C-alpha cells in the first residue's frame, strides 16, 4: 500500500512539473566592440530558436532549468541555464565575448606587385613625383621671393637638367629588363660589344622613352627596330 502511494505521489509530481507553463522572457545581448545583431538563440529542450535584432534584443518562451545556446560568427558560443530570477526579470542581460578569428598567412613573393596605391596609402591615379621632380616642385611652388632667387641663382635650370637625366636613367633601367642580350644580337643585329651604347642611344629618343613609360611593348619593339637600323648605319660609317 505504501509503495502504491509513493508511486502515485511521484507520478503526480511529474505531471505537475510537466504542466508548468512556459514564460516568454525578454533578453538583451551585449558584446564589447562587436555587432550583436543576428545572434542565434536556441532552447536546447524545445529546439525552438530566435535571433537578436540590431540592438541585441530577443524574446523566447522558456521554463526554469532550460538551457539556452547563444551563437554567432563573430562571438564565442555561450550556454546559459535559465533560473528563477530570469523568469521574473524585466530584461535578461546576456554578456558575450568577441571571438578571436586568426588571419591566414600572407606570403609576398618576388612577383607580388605592392604599391602605395593598393595598400591604400595614396589614392589611385594620384601623380607620383620622382626625387628630382620633388626638388623642382619645392623650388617653384613657393613663388614670391623664393622663386625669384631660385631663378636668379640658376637652381631651377639645374633642377630641370636633373629631371631630364633622371628620366633617361629610369628609361635605361626599364630597357635593361625588357630585352635580353640575345634579342639585340639575333633580332636587331647589334654587336655584343655595342649593346650598352645602343641602349644609351635609344633613351635619347623622346618617342621611345614615352613608349617605355607607357609600357607599350608593341610600340617599343617597333621603335627599337627603327633605332637599331639607324644605329647599325652609324657603326658601319664609323668603321
TrEMBL record:
Q: Which InterPro entries match?
A: CarboxyPept-like_regulatory
Its recorded name reads: CarboxypepD_reg-like domain-containing protein
What's the source species for this entry? Flavobacterium granuli
Amino acid at each position: 500500500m505504501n509503495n502504491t502511494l509513493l508511486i502515485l505521489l511521484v507520478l503526480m509530481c511529474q505531471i505537475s512539473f510537466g504542466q508548468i507553463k512556459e514564460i516568454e522572457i525578454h533578453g538583451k545581448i551585449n558584446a564589447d566592440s562587436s555587432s550583436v545583431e543576428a545572434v542565434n538563440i536556441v532552447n536546447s529542450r524545445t529546439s525552438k530558436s530566435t535571433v537578436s535584432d540590431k540592438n541585441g534584443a530577443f524574446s523566447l518562451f522558456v521554463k526554469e532549468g532550460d538551457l539556452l545556446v547563444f551563437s554567432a560568427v563573430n562571438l564565442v558560443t555561450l550556454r546559459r541555464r535559465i533560473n528563477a530570477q530570469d523568469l521574473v526579470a524585466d530584461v535578461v542581460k546576456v554578456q558575450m565575448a568577441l571571438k578571436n578569428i586568426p588571419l591566414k598567412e600572407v606570403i609576398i613573393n618576388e612577383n607580388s606587385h605592392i604599391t602605395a596605391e593598393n595598400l591604400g596609402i595614396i589614392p589611385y591615379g594620384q601623380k607620383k613625383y620622382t626625387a628630382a621632380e620633388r626638388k623642382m616642385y619645392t623650388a617653384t611652388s613657393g613663388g614670391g621671393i623664393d622663386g625669384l632667387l631660385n631663378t636668379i641663382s640658376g637652381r631651377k635650370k639645374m633642377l630641370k637638367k636633373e629631371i631630364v637625366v633622371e628620366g633617361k636613367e629610369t628609361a635605361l633601367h626599364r630597357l635593361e629588363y625588357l630585352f635580353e642580350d640575345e634579342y639585340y644580337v639575333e633580332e636587331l643585329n647589334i654587336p655584343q660589344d655595342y649593346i650598352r651604347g645602343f641602349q644609351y642611344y635609344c633613351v635619347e629618343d623622346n618617342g621611345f622613352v614615352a613608349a617605355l613609360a607607357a609600357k607599350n611593348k608593341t610600340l617599343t619593339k617597333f621603335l627599337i627596330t627603327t633605332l637599331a637600323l639607324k644605329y647599325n648605319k652609324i657603326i658601319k660609317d664609323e668603321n
